[in-house]
């Protein structure tokens, strides 16, 4: 019975090891997408602030 448990544990470990590259790729993709969204929002806020400053300083606008 102990040998059967060891065999089952080894098989589960090999299945987990086979999935590790996919898990790593998923985490990498999620970090990339989240960072792109955050950086884009920072860019939009910075451009909005810069646009408001130039509009307030421009008397013809």
TrEMBL record:
The lineage of its organism: Bacteria, Bacillati, Actinomycetota, Actinomycetes, Micrococcales. This is Uncharacterized protein. It comes from the Bacteria. It comes from Agrococcus baldri. The chain crosses the membrane at residues 22-39. Keywords: Membrane, Transmembrane, Transmembrane helix.
């Amino acid at each position: 019975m102990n040998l059967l448990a060891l065999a089952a544990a080894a098989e589960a470990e090999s299945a987990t090891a086979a999935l590790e590259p996919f898990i790593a790729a998923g985490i990498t993709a999620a970090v990339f997408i989240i960072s792109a969204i955050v950086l884009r929002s920072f860019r939009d806020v910075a451009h909005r602030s810069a646009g408001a400053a130039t509009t307030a300083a421009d008397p013809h606008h």
